[in-house]
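Posting this for the archive.
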Amino acid sequence: MTQSWYRMRFTKEEAMQGKTERLLAQLRDLIREREPDPAIAVYSSPVNDQVVDIYLSPAAATAAMKIVHHYWGIVSEPPPTTATLILGKPTPPGP
């Protein structure tokens, strides 16, 4: 299992094209299959009015590594404290 958080960045245009909704649908299906893993969490955080970051906890990234690679996810710091939990359970930031 990875110990790292992962981040995927989407522009407003990509979101309007449905890219973030496709990602979230794929993650919802995956999380549903793996319930009740309390370590799986996905957060959203706007960077500005044109860009949003999606963060996957280490457990979520491990479960969804093919999806992470498909959307060019990168190893990241945990999400900012202002990020919104959009899937799973709250996961405290790790090292």
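Residues 78 and 93 are 5 Å apart (CA to CA). The radius of gyration is 12 Å.
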